[in-house]
Design brief:
Distance between the termini: 26 Å
Number of helices: 17
Number of strands: 18
CATH superfamily of the largest domain: Ribokinase
Structural class: alpha/beta
Radius of gyration: 26 Å
Strand order of the largest sheet: 1-9-18-17-16-15-14-13-10-11-12
CATH topology of the largest domain: UDP-N-acetylmuramoyl-L-alanine:D-glutamate ligase
Length: 510
Amino acid sequence: MKIFTTGQIKDLDAKTIKLEGITSSDLMDRAALALFKRIAEEIKPTETILIIAGPGNNGGDALAIARLLIKAGYQVQTIVCHLKTLSNDASIQFDRLQEVPAARITCLKQAENLSLFEGYDYIIDGLFGSGLNRPLEGFYAEIVQWINLQDAVKISIDLPSGLFGEDNRMNIHENMVCANLVLGLQFPRLSFLLAENERYLKNWKLIDIAIHPQAIKEMTTPFSFTKMEDIRPMLKERSKFSHKGTFGKGLLIAGSPGMMGAAILAAKGALRSGIGLLSVRIPASETTILQTAVPEAIVESYDSGFFYETSDPIVPASFSAIAVGPGIKTGTAQASSLENFLKECPDNLILDADALNLLSENRKLLKLLPKNTILTPHPKEFDRMADTPSQSGYERLKKAMDFAREYQVYVVLKGAYTACITPEGHCSFNSTGNPGMATGGSGDILTGIVVSLLAQGYQAEEACKIGVYLHGLSGDLALDCQSQESLLPSDIARNLGKAFNLLHQRHEIK
């Protein structure tokens, strides 16, 4: 699913109107009907609703919804907030609402009068949507602040009023509606997916308003939102005559004394994701731990603190894919080993955890990164690697896109809605996962999944997208028998089979 900027949304509306030969008012009616149906699922007819409509087209949507709700028997009070005039389409909807006998409408130009409208069960926020291009202030800011003080459940149309669709770094945060539910129109906005906006978007759902498919197809954007229907076609079918060599040979360089859990979790992630053969390179002193915990893995041990030296018998080119980093620790030996390893220019390479910290501490190594290397940092790891702190998720995302282009690598920026960024700067956000996965070791499982997919012949972009989706889906499935508080990384690995089955549609997961 594509993600478009605010400006592009306006163009998509215009193209839909032109392609279908309809008016902008017709499109507004269509959107309002779809929104009404979703709101009717949320609110009981016995509950009271206050609708706050602004002067623009977001207000027009709200007025149309008010008309539909009243006709359906809901108890609705509508406030129209404007200092000058309504937009053309909002005026049309206002006139239609006035024709409804049971309509209760108040036009408001002073925020002080809002005290007359307290005590409603629900507030539907239609003050401003994606057309907003500057921070709210004055009269409109007072309305937003009043809304946020109410005990009512707040439902925003399109966007919480005051929130921009993309970059909110220069916005006035107290002048944005804190919505319990946002009903987005057709596509997620970029601001939905950034951590700094969570308080304004406790929950969001997309409402299909039937933007014309041709308009969507022709509009280009570097952003997308990955869903199950995007992942399913990527999965390879397995032949009956497959053998272990068919599914690749992977190398995982991980673990150290006291950090063998990282190696074990990554190995389990790889083995549960279909790799043919997995070798795990660990310190010789830790061999028993790994072979006991993961007997399916082949152990490649080393005696010194250097996990790779130029005279090493391990030949990177003999592996289909290689992952380096989980639990290896940082230090002079590890930095030297990583430098020697990168000079071999291995294909299908993933760097995670301590390997990323080594890049941050030894920035000259960045220039040695083979093209199409996959880096899987969490936000703070990325900030250290980029050598500058980020003040917002939006700023970090832009830096990550620049970083991927500069070094011609893939950046998997982990977190809620993990972003997979290509060397061309394209960014796809993931739709699976939950807060229970925010625990040490979860990222090691992801590293194992991705190296497994690469070893099986998936392209780097496919491995990133499928790996991240499977990782999150496994975490979601684990909640069938765990809570977000009790979920462990090993639960993610344990549910990978269910996740694959769900993607393959072998049976329904209940």
